[in-house]
Amino acid sequence: MWVYKTGRSEEKKMVLYQFENDRKYDRASDYLEGFNGVIQSDGYQAYANIKDIKNMGCFAHIRRKLVEVMDVAPKGTVIKETQTYKMYQLINKLFYLEKVYDKKYKKDYDRITRERKTKSLPVLEEFYEIVKTVAPHTPKKSHLDTAMTYAINNEKYLRYYIEDGRVEISNNSAERCCKSFVIGRKNFLFSNSINGAKASGAAYSIIESAKINGLKPYEYIEYILTRMTGNKLTADLLKKIMPWSEELPKNLYKNKKA
């Protein structure tokens, strides 16, 4: 299941679940044909090769890899004295700065870009100084080697967030949407057919899109089914029942009074 989620700067917020038989490059390029913007991912190379798309990396992934390194450190290692811990703390500082920017500047993405260039970039430079010092002396196929290889191979994609305040430091919000499907799959134990899997993707797209727009999923689905029943499915009707439509009844929202 491929999952696509709009970025935080988009007014029309949605989550799309697209079932495919595999993770081939063509799946992403075909689905994103005509899209010209930024894709933030876990470092999967298929996205990096799509024309007219800027690729943004995920700092949560490199942080997890550093945690794995510390978890398997030999007994007696003073973790806080290791280079791995220093890199881990620098990544934590980048995440902390993001919280500060989000709280102070909210949707002022130009200001966030300036703050990143002034305050986050020096931290990122220090991180990569350590990476490039440690990497050449790292045992091959070790946990640390995996972390350093990821950091080096994705450097230009990880650095991109400095240039664009709209993008987040990680794709955790999209991964949470993936988690919803994974939990559901554990309960309903897979799909028996391709059509069933595609239907699951459509259902999850509606439910998760409703949630990120502040709607109550059950009530929203009930509403759109009622509106669609007996009516011609026109572009105008679809526009009115989209989860971001301003024409939706207030009782569909979690925090709006009817």
Which secondary structure elements does this structure contain, and how are they paired or packed?
Layout: E1 2-5, E2 15-18, H1 25-31, E3 38-40, H2 45-48, E4 54-56, H3 59-71, H4 83-105, H5 109-134, H6 143-153, H7 155-159, H8 172-188, H9 194-212, H10 217-228, H11 235-241
Parallel strand pairs: 3-4
Antiparallel strand pairs: 1-2
Describe this structure in words.
Residues 205-244 form the Transposase IS66 C-terminal domain. Residues 1-198 form the Transposase IS66 central domain. Pfam families: DDE_Tnp_IS66 (PF03050), DDE_Tnp_IS66_C (PF13817). InterPro entries: IS66_C, Transposase-related, Transposase_IS66_central. This protein has 258 residues and is mainly alpha-helical. The chain has helices at residues 25-31, 45-48, 59-71, 83-105, 109-134, 143-153, 155-159, 172-188, 194-212, 217-228, 235-241; strands at residues 2-5, 15-18, 38-40, 54-56. Helix 2 (45-48) links the parallel strand 3 and strand 4 (54-56). The two termini are 36 Å apart.
